[in-house]
Amino acid sequence: MTATTAPATIPTVGVRPRRAGFVADVISVAGRAVRSIPREPESVIPALIIPVFFFVVNTGSLTDITSQIQDPGFSYKAFQLPVAIVFAVTGISRASTLVTDIQDGYFDRLTLTPIRRPALLLGLMVADFVLVVALAIPVLLLGFAVGVRFETGFLGVLLFVLLSASWGLVFTGFPYAIALKTGNPAAVNSSFLIFFPFAFLTTAFVPKELLSGWLETVATYNPVSYLLDALRSLAMEGWEGAILGKGVLAIVAVGVVSFSLCMAAFRGRIRAGA
Amino acid sequence: MGPSAIVASGLTRHFGSNEAVAGIDLDVAPGEVYGFLGPNGAGKSTTVRMLCTLLAPTSGTASVAGFDVARQPDEVRFRIGVALQEAALDPKQTGRELLRLQARLYGLRRAEAEQRLDQLTEMVDIGDALDDRIGTYSGGMKRRLDLAAALVHNPELLFLDEPTTGLDPVSRNRVWDEVRRLNEELRVTIFLTTQYLEEADVLCERVGIIVDGTIAAEGTPEELKRRIGTDVIIVRVGGDAEEARQAVEGIEGVGSVDVHDDEITIAADDGSAAVSPVAVALAERSVKVRDLTLRTPTLDDVFLELTGARFDPGTEDDANPEPEEARR
User: Fold this and answer.
1) Strand order across the B231-237 sheet
2) Is residue B304 part of a domain?
3) A118 shares contact with chain B (CB less than 8 Å)
4) Which end of chain B is less enclosed by CB atoms within 10 A, N or C?
5) Does B305 fall in a domain?
6) B299: closest CA of chain A, how far (Å)
């Protein structure tokens, strides 16, 4: 064998591995995921551009029309701000990173540690929550800049961000489910398609009373309609418990479905490894 | 010597109708370097993935460091380090970030982790690049970092799945040095899979040759080679190799005779004494001899005797593929 340069000593410290604990595991995984966000600006920039684009185009093209058919004082900008926020936070996840981890074998490296299995997923979702809150803020500032004001004040703004981010979080269940089930980056990218019926077959562009036919029916059963109603109520109407409650229920309902799919796919992915 | 570091009994793994591992028995002693030698698709990686809890066996049992891999996977995980076939790293993290995360997941306290990182940094000898993103590392640096990640928690047992595949000779030698030092200085038990005969020969105390999901032969490299005989005469012929086989079979002092393409491998207890009769016998049958070599047996000769084919790391890629599921 050829002689090679080698270090003079071998590591001999008697470290003893132990369970870090569930919370520590989640924080560790989330920390890594948050660190990676600024290193992948290409995955975040579209999420900022798309809502701003829609907000500017929609308010520019439809404000005059809606002003003719709505009560005086109706602000179409305030009506559209929740749509922009929902566009910004929906479908944002670390699912593509998860697929890369699976393909590169890094997911295996993590599962070879004694980490509590759910922390692998929950850590990524915590990072997603941080990201969607961060994405909601500039869109919100844009709304303020064009004159949108909240009837519910500062607390309403906080709840507005919280509800939006919660929606963004529960929606991550879908891309994660696809990522874990397929391990395929193309499939994960196409998960954005799920967003279209959620986003467009709703009261996104006009109030429900202006919808008709099948679209009205679909919008009635679309949970995003209730999320938008809740967000709009905070900006345009004041504290409306019933509307807010329905919005929260819509988020919970979607969360139950998406997280069930996600956890089933997660269990399937790690089941083989005992 | 204490209880075995690795014990497997009738270990199997199916992927649909494909039996990737078909009933493997293993008994690896603490402190041993055990080599699992076989071509691609023979079942090496699938076996490793079962032993290190990444893949559930279809049937059979295995215990690692005294714990059952299926029923006590966490106990196993605390005690093993694993460097998989492809360096399992995150290219967007720096080397230091990756090692720190690894240390945290094994519950190392901050000071403990930093001390361990200092030691491992010295071992992997990556220098300032430890603070660079892993995506910028060379193949050799990635392998060394992967090895360091496998050692963060001071495991008593190390699985190395083809640790040198794709490495240049210098990097390969370096990994060999590190494997030796881990074993000799820390008495870490090492289970190594390889498709390189030389690697198994120089590193491993015992070698299991795996073919089509079963262990075809097992022993020290010397024991395995002794199956062939003391010496081997290799003859490459220009004409009918079968004719040549018939010419040399039965010569006094000649053991087994294997033919592979235009090459005849003749086992002999005393090669020097058998060379002349072999050459004469071939000349009498008018066999055209292109070259004739006398040497000691290699593991390749063992493989030839076991399977009837020369060892070709890539030959079984399509014959017994390990599907995507095996990579979970």
Assistant:
1) B254-260, B263-268, B231-237, B289-295
2) no
3) no
4) N
5) no
6) 18
CA distances from B25 to B21, B71, B76 (A): 11, 19, 19
pLDDT at position A168 is 93
Evaluate whether B264 touches B234 at the Cβ level (below 8 Å): yes
Torsion of Cα atoms, A228 then A233 then A234 then A240, to 10°: -120
Of B22, B45, B4, B53, which Cα lies nearest the Cα of B192? B45
ipTM: 0.81
Q: How far apart are CA B128 and CA B110, in angstroms?
A: 21
Interface of A with B in 72-101 (CB under 8 A): 101
Q: A113 and B77: CB-CB below 8 Å?
A: yes
Closest residue, chain B, to A35 (C-alpha): B93
- Residue at token pair 């559930």: B56
Give the one of A5, A112, A183 whose C-beta lies nearest to B54's C-beta.
Answer: A112
Instruction: Kindly report, residue by residue over A188-213, the tens digit of the pLDDT.
Output: 888 778 877 777 788 777 777 777 78
What is the C-alpha separation between A250 and A252, in angstroms, rounded?
5
Packing angle, helices A173-182 and A95-104, rounded to 10: 20
Q: Phi and psi of B5, rounded to 5°?
A: -75, -40
Say which residues have a Cβ less than 8 Å from residue A50's Cβ, sequence separation at least 6.
A87, A88
Domain interval for residue B28: 6-224
Put simply, whether A110 touches B (Cβ < 8 Å) is yes
A185 vs B: CB within 8 A: no
- Which residues are CB-contacts of A235 (< 8 A; sequence separation ≥ 6)? A78, A81, A82, A148, A149, A150, A151, A152, A156, A160
| Higher per-residue pLDDT: B7 or A193 | B7
Provide the number of structural domains found in chain B. 2
Spatial contact of B54 and A108, defined as CB atoms under 8 Å apart: yes
Model confidence pLDDT, tens digit, residues B79-114: 999 998 777 899 999 999 999 999 999 999 999 999
pLDDT at B315: 44
Tokens found for residue B237 = 């012929």
For residue A73, report the phi and psi dihedrals to the nearest 5 degrees.
90, -10
- Contact call for residues B261 and B320 (beta carbons, < 8 A): no
Domain assignment present for residue B328? The answer is no
Residue B50, in any domain of the structure: yes
Of B78, B149, B182, the CB nearest to A17: B78
**Exposed e or buried b per residue across A238-257, where buried means at least 16 C-beta atoms within 10 angstroms of its C-beta:** eebeebbebbeebbeebbee
B189 and B248, same domain (yes or no): no
